[in-house]
Design goal:
The protein is mainly beta.
Length: 587
């Protein structure tokens, strides 16, 4: 049996004398009272993650745990985790991601990475094969093995003493109350990252995710402090960053604390969809067997692919056996989706039967069918995509945002990468193909001014002056964009242009009286992140923002909180929507 003795610190007194002479006067060994002796996991003294990093193990309460905080950058299947260190990314991300404390590489060695809750509950798994992030129940069992009086049902202090046996005797700020590391767990004060991207509590506190949601879109974790010996149980926002330890899967052979029964993945069925609308539906499933290991995550995976899994959008709807309900949100109108329920335990993830449904088609705006441009009810781009048209005043506009991936001459428009050069790029919001049909694509300014042309033959990207014609038709009091340069050109035209659908509340003033049908398509920032879907929409013009210098272009923008139509100059590295205007159409 392998046993590990906590390291001893040797402290020496040094006397510095004149003439540069140095004398060592005494040395002593500092030992914690009754230095702890603890066991490596039998047969598994170390474990290696998918990145090749090695972790020591320790046996606590009959279960095998890692003794170091996780430092992996990928899921077990090799899929990468998000790692953008910026606060903008951290506060808006909805996928598994990690961060260094204070974004300082020197913190990795002692403290590992901080992972958000999305990473902790993702069924692809952060831990090495045969290991998993412990459930809330498994953390509770470990704490109770160290303190029989612990109450794992508490939201708050779970144990008054177990924290001391879990905490390392090093790296913590004084007084590090009760720290003995008698368990060998070696908890270190790695701090946390908040949902707004701020860091805190390094050297004062160590926080560890479980893999168990609390039923309200939060996830249970454990917290240890420097000023007491408690273990605190609480739940945190999915965008918070915390440390992770791994626990070995139960094998059914008794190794690592398993029972005698064989274990398997859960069995789950998918229920039919109900309450289907244009953008939402209600689904769910039933876990009929947990396979002998607690179900730590369940929900439905859905998408337009034939067999959706956890690489597509999915819900999280509690834990354990029985039926559950799932709300599918932000769906695309008039689209067929495939759905499978899933359930995850320590052995793996299982999927239920496939169920398909089609969202409702949006009703056409009142009178808009009659507003198609005479003789040109549709127009087709270079790639064969068809768009409706709308006559507003004497102008003929496309009735939806441009989706082309080719210039007019057939040359491809480069798909956007994170490294920009001054050439045309196109992208879909959040890199989700489902956004293309509804919101169109986002183009940078270099694509807009490329002489090969974005719009179909006989059409063009409008100038600022051509948008002024539209604004004046909708609001005779509108002001020219060149005169305003940066501000509202009309107090009411924005409401006339906005769709009644797919905007966040309150969608102030929206009537779509023009049948322009502008949607809250959002934009792509220069940091390669996406912003403001449902809140704002931004249309390029071809008019230079600063005549005589610079590359900026004027835009037109609409907001969910205002009925104004606004003009502003913007850098061409941004990604905005495009509406095409028919040549010589009353401008």
């Amino acid at each position: 049996m392998l046993r590990l003795l906590v390291s001893q610190k040797i402290r020496c007194s040094i006397l510095i004398w004149g003439l540069g002479l140095v004398f060592m006067t005494s040395c002593r060994k500092d030992l914690a009272p009754n230095p702890p002796v603890f066991e490596f996991c039998p047969g598994s003294p170390t474990v290696t993650d998918v990145d090749g990093q090695v972790y020591n193990t320790v046996l606590i309460g009959g279960r095998c745990w890692t003794r170091n905080n996780l430092k992996v950058t990928k899921f077990r299947n090799g899929d990468g985790l998000g790692s953008d260190p910026s606060s903008n990314y951290w506060t808006s991300v909805n996928q598994g991601s990690f961060s260094l404390y204070d974004n300082q590489s020197g913190n990795k060695g002692d403290f590992g990475y901080l992972y958000n809750g999305y990473a902790a509950v993702d069924a692809r798994g952060l831990c090495p094969t045969g290991w998993h992030i412990p459930t809330d129940a498994e953390w509770g069992q470990m704490v109770k093995s160290l303190d029989p009086s612990a109450n794992s049902a508490n939201s708050g202090a779970e144990s008054a003493t177990a924290g001391g046996t879990l905490k390392s005797v090093e790296l913590w700020n004084s007084p590090n109350v009760g720290a003995t590391n008698a368990s060998g767990f070696g908890a270190v004060p790695g701090g946390f990252r908040s949902e707004v991207g701020l860091f805190g509590a390094k050297s004062d506190g160590g926080t560890y995710w479980t893999s168990t949601p609390d039923g309200s879109s939060r996830v249970w974790f454990r917290y240890l402090y420097d000023d007491n010996a408690s273990v605190v149980r609480n739940s945190g926002n999915l965008r918070q960053g915390r440390s992770v330890r791994c626990i070995q899967d139960l094998t059914g052979t008794g190794g690592g604390g398993g029972g005698g029964d064989s274990l398997e993945a859960p069995t789950v069925t998918t229920q039919s969809l109900a309450s289907i609308s244009m953008n939402t539906a209600i689904g769910g499933g039933q876990v009929v067997s947990d396979g002998g290991s607690p179900v730590v995550q369940r929900g439905v995976a859905y998408g337009t692919v034939p067999l959706p899994d956890l690489n597509q959008p999915y819900t999280m709807n509690g834990t354990g056996m029985g039926s559950f309900s799932s709300a599918l949100l932000n769906l695309t109108p008039n689209t067929t989706y495939n759905v499978r329920a899933y359930a995850t335990n320590a052995i793996g993830t299982s999927y239920g039967n496939l169920v398909s449904f089609t969202t409702d088609a949006p009703p056409p705006p009142t009178g808009c069918q009659a507003n198609a441009c005479p003789g040109t009810p549709t127009v087709t781009d270079a790639g064969g995509r068809v768009y409706g048209t709308v006559k507003i005043g004497n102008q003929c506009w496309m009735a939806s945002n441009l989706r082309t991936v080719q210039y007019r001459n057939g040359d491809p428009i480069t798909a956007w990468s994170s490294n920009q050069v001054p050439v045309g790029y196109q992208a879909v919001y959040d890199n989700l193909s489902s956004n293309e049909t509804t919101y169109g694509l986002l183009y940078n300014g270099f694509a807009v001014i490329d002489p090969r042309g974005l719009c179909p033959t006989g059409w063009h990207v409008p100038s600022s002056a051509e948008f002024d014609v539209l604004a004046t038709f909708l609001d005779p009091n509108a002001i020219g964009g060149s005169a305003v340069f940066n501000g509202a050109v009309s107090a009411t035209a924005g409401g006339e242009m906005k769709s009644l659908l797919l905007w966040n509340s309150p969608n102030t003033g929206a009537t779509n009286g023009s049948c322009f049908g502008a949607l809250g398509a959002g934009y792509r920032g220069t940091d390669a992140n996406y912003y403001n879907q449902g809140i704002g929409t931004y249309f390029w013009t071809t008019t230079t923002g600063f005549p005589g210098g610079g590359n900026s272009l004027l835009d037109r923008r609409l907001w969910n909180f205002s009925s104004e139509l606004v003009v502003a100059p913007n850098a061409p590295e941004l990604g905005f929507s495009v509406r095409c205007l028919k040549d010589s159409s009353g401008n």
